[in-house]
Amino acid sequence: MLDRLLVAASDSTDPFGSIKDFFHSSTWHFVVLMFWFFLVVVWLSCAYWVFKDARRRIDDRIVIVVAVLTGLVFGPFGLFVYAILRPPEYLEDARERELELRMLELRLDGEEHCPFCKTPVKDDYLVCPHCMRRLREVCSSCHRPVEPGWRICPYCERQIPQEQTFGLEIG
Ligand SMILES: [Zn+2]
Ligand SMILES: [Zn+2]
To answer: Distance, CA 166 to ligand 1 centroid (Å)?
Structure first.
């Protein structure tokens, strides 16, 4: 092995000369140029990726700018740090979840409130448990709660007499 190297070295007059030539050649310049070009592309795509991701996760513009700058300055390392620190959820998912939660709350809360004192009531309460005002009548035939304004009981078809006791305090 060593013999062969020595032979190869003795073949050319100046072995380091050809290496120097290579580093001054246009091929080497092209390699260096491509390397820098590749590096710039990697750095820019890191920043772009962070920008695209951050826009969907972060509401604050300043935080987005900081994240993109981190990607731009530190490239893949900045991207790595961003991936650890970024909010785990997309903004649209978070908004959707919040909306769902609010809808559920509304439903659980019951859209029904006592019209007089705003106490939450169930849809079959006859009297508001807080202000003791009458919310509904009962059907004289089947004894189910009927809404004020109903003229006929929807369960047993009994006509409801139109005396207005709705809203009167009982007892
Ligand atoms: Zn009430
Ligand atoms: Zn009835």
So the answer is: 12
